[in-house]
Amino acid sequence: MRKTLPERYYLDHFHEFLSFFDGANRVLLTDEALDFIDRFKALDDNAQCIVARAASRKYAVVVVKTFQYQEIQAPIDTLFLLQQLNWFSGVLNGGAYAISQVLTKPHLHQLLLENGIKMPASASKNVLVDTFTEAYSKGAITESGELDSQYLFCEFDAVLRFLLFLYFGHTRGRLNQFSMRDLGVMRTRQDAITDSARFEHREAAVNAYHYANALQQFKSMNTEQKRNFDPVVDKPVYCAIGHDYRDRLLFAMGQFWLSEDNHKALGYLKLAGSDNAREKWIRETYKAGNKDAAKEALEAIIDDPSSDTLLAFAEDFYQRKFGSKRTSVLTDMLREATRVISLDESYIQDVENGVVETHLRENKQAFRTENTLWRTLFGLFFWDWLHGEFGLVSEFDRRPQVLRHNDFYARCGEHIDAHLAEYCNSPDTLYPYLLKQATTHYGKVNSVFMWRQGLLDTIHTFLQYVDIQGLANFLRMMTQDYANLRDGFPDIMVIENDTLWFEEIKAPGDQLRRNQLVTIQRLKQTGFNVGITQVNWYQDPMQPYVVVDIETTGGQGPQHRITEVGMVKMINGEEVARWQSLINPMRHIPYRITQLTGISDDMVVDAPPFEAVADDIDAFTRGCVFVAHNVNFDYGFIKQEFARLARPFRRPKLCTCARMRQHQSGLASYSLKALTRHFGIRLDNHHRALDDALAAAELLKIIQGEG
Q1: Does 165 fall in a domain?
Q2: Which of 21, 212, 492, 681 ranks highest by number of CB atoms within 10 Å?
Q3: For residue 181, what pLDDT band results from cuts at 50, 70 and 90?
Q4: Is-catalytic flag, 13?
Q5: H-run or E-run covering 575
Q6: 197 lies in a domain?
């Protein structure tokens, strides 16, 4: 059922937003912010409704006639009363960007004309915007004429954006997120909020906002505006948020000036302290011929690295430019792959599963793990810290503060060590703890991992074979540098003869990314066996293919269900097995579908539901390429049925229709019936699953050169 919002929900949300500043965050407010809140509370309800509505608009320029709401009495009169009280002012105070985004094309044309700038009536909105922006920046727009009665500027915009920054922790937050929450569009963490602030004191908040706002302005500027942009970049920063925004601003400005003034660009890049800025400065300095300066900077990083990722760059770049190495560490690691495996080319779009299937056929245990295993372990084990005192400030936060600032261990190191010692000392202690955490918090919104059925199954297997001390050491590493160890984990986990190892899978043309290099190196440091598996493609004549056809109660959509499944297994161009069953869809089969397929309600009343045959279908198709005519239809329905059972279903796919379009171009039709007629293939009972699957199997043989 669709949710509805109460009549004055904008005002209710605005009061909820302002209540955030009644507690720990009040000390962060500037005099202007305190005055804004006090003045707002002094307004009557009618005026508050207008201010709250205006505050929720995307731009600081608002259209007067758009305030006709049931909860607002005499909106025009109230707006101009608020203008006298300095809540609103003339449209020209709104800045070029907001004005150009809100004004209609005719009004923008009129505004230019008011200021003596004639433009042809046929001029596009983009041309008008560019002309207006240039004129505004030169101070040539001074008259607004009658437009001040139709558009107003929100004088409180600057202080509102500061308050939004304090609340959301970034410059993208909008008040409409409260409405999205209430409508159920956005899930939040109301259960995890404590009365805490993002900043320790007012100056930290103000200076962080200065850099965040400057970055936002810079991104919205055109080239000429960027050339003239000269923000203050020496305001002191006191927190990770401030450092982050200052570094991002300096990096963005450095990137811009590289094509305009290399000396100026290098100056901005050198001021920034982020890893990407330091790397960029070294690369550009080396490129400019100042190799000694680049070498000195590299040596400084190697002696005292700020992160594993930057160290990996510095060591590699130093060896290639100032040592004897001619290839990168990433290239070397790929060349030194610990295993080479040949896979049938049908797995080109699903290479990791192809390797898993190969291991399973060799009687090993194999699992797709990638980032999921490690982030789930990390998120569950440290849940109480990540979503407690050091976690979320507002309910809209996704990433816990200690992860966003990458200072988890720095702030909680002693507690982390004690927690690891207590619970990560044996699988018998760790698994029950993880199970308890998962049971307690299942389904709660978090940014570390995704909840899913069977969440702990792979973890349980992993813990049976892992060196528990190595795991504890790696989890500690993740708390020390989560920013660089949150991803890049190997693709699969393999177990054979009680030995566990991980494999990063690389197909021809794949590159090893630096974050993967860093993570793999750290895993190895803590005792994990990690290797690179290089895949080569070939056509395996013994690769099994299962040609599938289904009949349904109707077209795509969750309301329709399967009524019949037919499958033919092919190896080396020969049929080796077939499987067929009617399926009870647990709903009425429409008359038109019965006319098409011949399958009626009476025929399926005693047939098994999909749940009863799911194991058979899973087993019959496992390790096979899933083939069908218009494969996404059949595959999508079967995957949807497995999803209803909270079971995964993933197979490499091949579409006989798509392949026939490549194999036999120029035919009038590529329907199954038309193709069987064209090739003289027998099709007795079209729209019955097994007959259609047998016909599609003949098309597969033609595609594979067997027909």
Answers
A1: yes
A2: 212
A3: confident
A4: no
A5: strand 574-582
A6: no
